[in-house]
Amino acid sequence: MRESWRWFGPGDPVSLEEIRQTGATDIVSALHDIPIGEAWPLEQILAHKTRIEARNTIHSPLYWTVVESIPVHEDIKLAAPGHERYIENWILTVKRLGEAGIKTICYNFMPVIDWTRTDLKHEMPNGAIALRFDQDRFAAFDLFILERDRAEKDYSAEERDRARAAFENMCADDVAQLTETIIAGLPGKMTEAYTIDDFRQALARYDGMTHAALRANLMAFLGKVLPHADRAGVKLAIHPDDPPWDMFGLPRIICTPRDLNLLFGKLPNPSNGMTLCVGTYGSRPDNDLPQMAIDFAERIHFAHLRGVSRDKDEQRSFVEANHLDSDIDMIGVIRNLLSNETELDREIFIRPDHGHLMMADLENAKSNPGYSGIGRMKGLAEVRGVIRALSVEEQ
Ligand code: DNO
């Protein structure tokens, strides 16, 4: 397994020198400054790679090997008139990354919103801070802050009552904070940051969009991209919709093994692959993560290792737990990924996906939610221990 680490570029409060000290060898990054829809210029790709790899002769080396993510323009997801040029640009970026030797590309196809949480400062019993998705607060936002048309029908009477109680508990600051957390952005999101009016308009563009129609748009997009990726030797790794269910009346189509079977069944190209985001898929009790690691062995090019603990009485609410202590059998997942590697004679990139805000980082005002240094280092170290122990057992 190749231990990788997400780096957001020169503005990231966690520096490349610090990442080196965690023991990671591979960098997961993107050109975040290029507007969504434009092709990434080759010179900028090479400059970013040089920046990442500059000190490799002096210190233990770091390589830019994984892209997360090339954003997919909303017009592609909508198959809106003129979207073909955005697909052409996406293909150009894939080809250029291939030329630069960066052969694993994570992306997602979530309409309007990328990953979504409701609380960025959930205190764990030990005082560390975790990210949380709370269904009642989410529903409170949808029903009483956004006041989305037809939102009512997406919640049961009991859910609406709980959402109202959550809403009535919020002061104006809480409302502003929750709104910002949901629509203005978490680090690494691949969609625009919205104001509430823009958000309403962005949602309106999807009125009437069914799962089947969105899936057809994904297939049409990939139908054009995959032949080029195959030729460039690049592996695409689709990231699941996080959390993996419909939200705001939007269809979400990469949530379960069934969704993945539809995707790979229709387009079996070797470059058509997936990111096994353990935390995302594991937010649903019906997704069996160790089994998915076996069933999709050839398709998994990248894995995000993170645990979630779901609330007992509300199956949609969860907290990002410790990497090894959660509702997910992380050791089983790692064991199965390791045997895939042996059987298929290849290496999978893994990264610690999110970590708790803890220790000195609690004082660090600049930490990106989920992406602080110390918490992720703890996660990586725990996961590394499991990998080493299981690898010795295998021999
Ligand atoms: C959050 C991440 C997302 C993800 C993108 C993938 O931490 O999992 O930013 O990277 O949605 O395209």
In short:
By secondary structure, the chain is of the alpha/beta class. It has helices at residues 16-22, 42-53, 74-78, 84-99, 135-145, 157-168, 172-184, 196-204, 211-232, 257-266, 278-281, 289-295, 330-344, 373-394; strands spanning 2-6, 26-29, 63-68, 104-107, 119-123, 129-133, 235-238, 272-277, 300-305, 307-310, 318-321, 349-352.
Please give the structural blueprint.
Layout: E1 2-6, H1 16-22, E2 26-29, H2 42-53, E3 63-68, H3 74-78, H4 84-99, E4 104-107, E5 119-123, E6 129-133, H5 135-145, H6 157-168, H7 172-184, H8 196-204, H9 211-232, E7 235-238, H10 257-266, E8 272-277, H11 278-281, H12 289-295, E9 300-305, E10 307-310, E11 318-321, H13 330-344, E12 349-352, H14 373-394
Parallel strand pairs: 1-2, 1-12, 2-3, 3-4, 4-7, 7-8, 8-9, 9-12
Antiparallel strand pairs: 5-6, 6-11, 10-11
This protein binds D-mannose.
Describe this structure in words.
By secondary structure, the protein is α/β, with parallel strands linked by helices. The protein has a single domain (2-116, 208-313, 322-394), classed as Alpha-Beta Barrel (TIM Barrel), CATH 3.20.20.150. Helix content is 42%, strand content 14%. It is built from 14 helices and twelve strands. An eight-stranded parallel barrel has the order 1-2-3-4-7-8-9-12, surrounded by four helices. A four-stranded antiparallel sheet has the order 5-6-11-10. Helix 2 links the parallel strand 2 (26-29) and strand 3. The longest helix is centred in the middle third of the chain and has 22 residues, at 211-232. The chain is globular. The mean pLDDT is 96. The protein binds D-mannose. D-mannose (DNO) binds next to strand 4.
